[in-house]
Amino acid sequence: MSRHSKNNTALGHFTAYEKSITNYGTQKQRLGRDSMRNFDACCLCLQRALIPVCCLKGHLFCKECIYSNLLNQKQNFLKEEITYKKQEKSFQIEEELSKNRLKEEELLKFEETQNKFFYTDKTSEKFKKNKDYKQSEEEKQDEEERKRYNDEQRKKLQRDPNSKELPSFWVPTETPESKQTVLKEPKNQQCKCTGGDEEHPISIKKLVSINFTESKLKNVETNVKDYICPSCVKTFINGMDIVVTKTCGHTLCKKCSDKFVKRFKKCFVCDVKVKEKGLIDLVCEGTGFSVKGKAEAEKYGLPFQ
Questions:
Q1: What average pLDDT does range 184-207 have in this prediction?
Q2: Gene Ontology cellular component (predicted)?
Q3: Are residues 200 and 292 in the same domain?
Q4: Nearest to residue 244, comparing CAs of 288, 280, 195, 220?
Q5: What pTM was computed for the model?
Q6: Is residue 21 part of a domain?
Q7: What is the tally of structural domains in the chain?
Q8: In whole angstroms, what is the distance from residue 150 CA to residue 160 CA?
Q9: For the chain, how are helix, strand and coil distributed in percent, rounded to 5?
């Protein structure tokens, strides 16, 4: 084989490295440990949770952060309802005004047509003799145009503002008017948890307060006491599966909870009765390795066809 056939450009397809250089289409990149949240960090402020609380799906929050978040969501729901009611009132007022205008125009036309036939004897004789007694063609055309205009306005009133069918906008009579964005009626307004990939409904009553057991000595690097499992005394890390009890909020590793809590149906720390459904798995984002917590960032790009 010749030397040119061994070059990198002689391949009939792109390698993975060449494809990443081109920035063509969707780009994917694996995330490391630095871009992952700690197991004891709040999902909202991303700092170590003060007065930790978790939802039923295992997302951990600071008590203050989640309360303020839920309050903001409820305030936004109230704002949406108020704006929607204002919009409905404005639409009703516009409809009434347009209907009243059309009625006034019809009455004016009727009065004009009726007044033409009420003449005195002298004027009637003059008009009878006059050739222009009948309506001219121009007046007839004006009346026809007025009728068309009224019919078009009636159609606009009957037309649904939320309809997706576009009129023939290039015709001057069918040109769309500049209007405000029509808001939809707010439905199913529930406060949602945004800690994970998928949102789910959440409420203050269903939050579980967590009681971590701290180590006796402080960590040298962080100068903060680490959280440990009360049975095996192992420090919690992102690679471990941590379980929380609903009733008392004590935390254990997965192995110890299977040995003691599920077997005896009691909390290992305070001996409170615990059901199988009363255990919550804390959500940990992982360590960055392929075994535990695979995280990948994706950027969508539309390739030219």
A1: 87
A2: nucleus
A3: yes
A4: 280
A5: 0.67
A6: no
A7: 2
A8: 18
A9: 40, 15, 45
Which of 20-58 are b and which e, b meaning 16 or more Cβ less than 10 Å from the residue's Cβ? eeeeeeeeeeeeeeeebbbbbbbbbeeeebeebbbbeeb
Regarding whether 55 and 93 lie in a shared domain, the answer is: no
Q: How far apart are CA 272 and CA 159, in angstroms?
A: 65
Could you give the dihedral angle defined by the CA atoms of residues 213, 207, 202 and 31, in that order, rounded to the nearest 10 degrees? -10
Q: What is the pLDDT of residues 170-194, one digit of tens each?
A: 767 666 666 667 788 888 788 999 8
Could you list the residue range(s) of the whole structural domain that residue 240 is in? 27-63+192-299
Same domain, 291 and 207: yes
What letters, b where the CB count within 10 A reaches 16 and e where it falls short, cover 203-223? eeeebbebebbeeeeeeeeee
261 secondary structure, DSSP code: I
What DSSP state is assigned to residue 77?
H
Would you say 244 and 58 are in contact if contact means Cβ atoms under 8 Å apart?
Answer: yes
